[in-house]
Amino acid sequence: MSSDLRDQIYNNLNLKDTNELLEIWQENNRGDWSDLAFGVIAEILQRRLAQLPPQDEAIYIHSDPEDNGGADEDEVADPDNKFLDEDNTPVFYKPRDVLFLVNRLQWAALASVVLSVVIFYVQQFQNLQVTYSSFFLRAPQFAFIGTLLALGFIALEGVVVFLGTYLPLRALAVVLNILMEMEFNSRNAR
Fold it and tell me: 109-122: per-residue pLDDT in tens?
């Protein structure tokens, strides 16, 4: 085990109030906190209190089954996901929260493209149509070309929004999955 990880856990937990650490210690929820975190909490509490209070019987599942980090089971991509294994819970984040965020980023990316194109269409289509149709004032039979040009411009705007909004949000979702995988693998979790 890396001493850097232990030091990081120690530094983060040492910032917590003694009462909060006591609550975590006594609740003994191994589904929410790793064995390493409990070892660090024990060390901090011994230093602060000189004697460790007794712990409840160990709990190996999340303490509140109704609260799954804001995500419903249906909203998490794969309920059998290795990140959701109660025996391998990370210390610094909740996998359900990350999976929930990834799911929401995917929807936000799609919604941003659609919304941007619709807003642009409502605001600018008529102006573009009039502008492009004005090129054909001397030949009104070709005025429909102005409408086609306006539609083409809106389609181009959709592509730009796709490249500038959708792809970065999707990339962020992929990066979150990669970071979670890296953290998972760094703990040599099964």
Answer: 778 777 877 777 77
